[in-house]
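Morning F.,

Quick status update on the modeling queue. The single chain you submitted on Monday has been processed. Sequence for confirmation:
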Amino acid sequence: MPTNQNTLPIHHTAIVEDAWIDYNGHMNVAYYTRAFDLGTEGFLEAIGFGAAWRERENKTMMAVESHVVYEREAHVGDHLDVSVRMVDHDDKRVHVYCQMFDREEGHRAATCEWLMLQVDFAVRRATQFNDDERARLAAAQRTEAALGPIEGAGRSIGLKKQKPDPS
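Structure tokens below.
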């Protein structure tokens, strides 16, 4: 059961454009990913890891893994809201869970999880969060805890093995 979009902060909004539609008549996967990326940027900005931080610290957050689940089609003119929540973090990484909602219809269209890694631009290598960054992540984690559990996070991909048909 999807979380009610009205209880979540919105980190990105978009209106599906004609150019985003593929040969199947719905929004192409690349635009779902782009919307989730922009939502994640909005979330990072909100918790103090945006453009000013990147410039000041010469660091960034880079995606190292993602998992998208497409639940409903999006079509031209649909108004989409993307909400992002932090699932967890450690010394170098942040795990977020994104949800895309159709604003008019109210249904969830897709979800995306990202595992991001902090990278030092000077050496293009992963680096640990400093004390200030850890404090901001801990504060964000407390805010997330107050919103309740994140249902659906951590889902894996794979085929369930079918039992052979005895006939």
